[in-house]
Amino acid sequence: MSSQLEKVKQLTTMREKARLGGGEKRIESQHKKGKYTARERIAMLLDEGSFEEFDMFVEHRCTNFGLEKEKYFGDGVVTGYGTIDGRLVYIYAQDFTIFGGSLSETMALKICKVLDQAMKMGAPMIGINDSGGARIQEGVNALAGYAEIFQRNILASGVIPQISAIFGPCAGGAVYSPALTDFNIMLKGTSYMFLTGPKVVKAVTGEDVTQEQLGGASIHSTKSGVSHFAAETEEDGLLLIRKLLSYLPSNNLEEAPAIECNDPVDRLEDALNDLIPDSPNKPYDMYDIIGSIVDNGEFLEVHKTYAPNIIVGFARFNGMSVGIVANQPKYLAGVLDINSSRKAARFVRFCDAFNIPLVTLVDVPGFLPGTQQEYGGIILHGAKLLYAYGEATVPKVTVTLRKSYGGAYCVMSSKHLRGDINYAWPSAEIAVMGASGAIEVLYSKEIAASQDPKGCAAEKEQQYTEAFANPYNAAKYGYIDDVIEPRNTRFRIIRALQQLATKKLSNPAKKHDNLPL
């Protein structure tokens, strides 16, 4: 055999060894836990045969605690690029079979390299996390590696979409990279995120808590909002990434991909004309409206189980990707509170960063009152949503369906926050407050002095309702561009978006803003 052939054979052998990660036994252990390996995950996510790997032969450089005697090709992370639906993406997947996926200096260098490449090429970055945290034997070098990754996540924010999938443990400093990215996907039952584990929590606070109770997918997708999606299986999580990317542009200088639409632009939904209940206090389901006006009823919801009083997610109108923000009257009457304000503000800012138009469906009675909200900073958190809408320069179409009261009217993409097209249904009520609250302020003395206080209150309430519980007062001032028939909502939104396709608007030059955090 020629020396050249021997070298080729050596390369083939080394590649085979690298693809085995930590070895057959550890791969088997990963499978027994119901988890796939890093390479299996990449193969499932990307278009078949499209993956090109970087740095397959990298090894760690640590000589502490006997670690120099144990080395593996790749050093615990698989990095490279490929395509999803034919579009370029960059990816890294931590390999739990090598030192439990713990982060070393060289692993960090591999991740930084692929992040840098994604930025240069203007392509989305996907990280699959399955790691025990920093490699303790490497000390400060591992911590430095984390900080280098964080710095790149920060610089990439708003430039390329960044998606994190948590498919196993993610603890300590490791949690901050996913937290800095745009979307976090966790797996029910097998993934968790926390800064300090159950043992440290027990030692410091005395609390007994399991990993799942402390930082499982159910906790982070309902209570903390850290996770945007909670998937049942790894297959579901990877399919979700593909679906999510279909709504997004590759970078902040491009538009989201438009797809052919076979759903008629002028499709009428007669049911919408009679959907709003006669009683202003009776709830209805906002999902019914979203499903009936978007293309083919398809809606990819973000943060579905967190702050359900507001709904955010992606849909299409005539094949064009849009972000939808909608109050949900079925939960807490659609009121704005701390969590819903944060949730919607983050989503609005993402859409604005990536040129995705915003469609806002309004039915909001106001902000949630109470000491818990005030002490928690509802003023600041509500200001985040107000700020997000006010700074957004993408096309903004707003439809007020029913209530739009007080400060919440201003916040929900009103004309005064540079809403481009603001429509209202005939059932819309745009006022400082509801009729019963308003008459208490305006006519309390008159009602108290009346021989029939109840009758007087009812009469005043009726007068206020007739004067203000309609969209025409706002339309009179041009704050509402048109009052539309509900069944025409889809058509009117599409026409508005078509008109706004060439919108040009820029904010004043500045180093950066000072968002109320």
Structural class estimated from helices and strands: alpha/beta
Task: Round the Cα radius of gyration to an integer and report it.
Answer: 27 Å
N-end to C-end Cα span: 67 Å
Q: Percent of residues in beta strands?
A: 15-25%
CATH class of the largest domain, anyone?
Alpha Beta
Largest sheet: 8 strands, mixed
Fraction of residues in H or I helices? 25-40%
How is this fold's topology laid out?
Blueprint: H1 3-19, H2 24-32, H3 38-45, E1 52-54, E2 77-84, E3 87-94, H4 105-121, E4 125-129, H5 140-156, E5 162-166, E6 169-171, H6 176-180, E7 183-187, E8 192-194, H7 198-205, H8 211-215, H9 217-224, E9 229-231, H10 234-246, H11 286-293, E10 299-302, E11 310-317, E12 320-327, H12 338-353, E13 358-364, H13 371-375, H14 378-391, E14 396-405, H15 406-411, E15 421-424, E16 429-431, H16 435-449, H17 453-468, H18 472-476, E17 482-483, H19 489-499
Helix pairs in contact: 4-5, 12-14, 16-17
Polypeptide structure, described:
The protein is of the alpha/beta class and 517 residues long. It has three domains: 244 residues, 2-enoyl-CoA Hydratase, Chain A, domain 1 (Alpha-Beta Complex); 198 residues, 2-enoyl-CoA Hydratase, Chain A, domain 1, CATH 3.90.226; 34 residues, no CATH class. The chain contains 19 helices and 17 strands. Strands 10, 11, 12, 13, 14, 15, 16 and 17 form an eight-stranded mixed β-sheet that branches. Helix 4 runs parallel beside helix 5, helix 12 packs parallel to helix 14 and helix 16 packs antiparallel against helix 17.
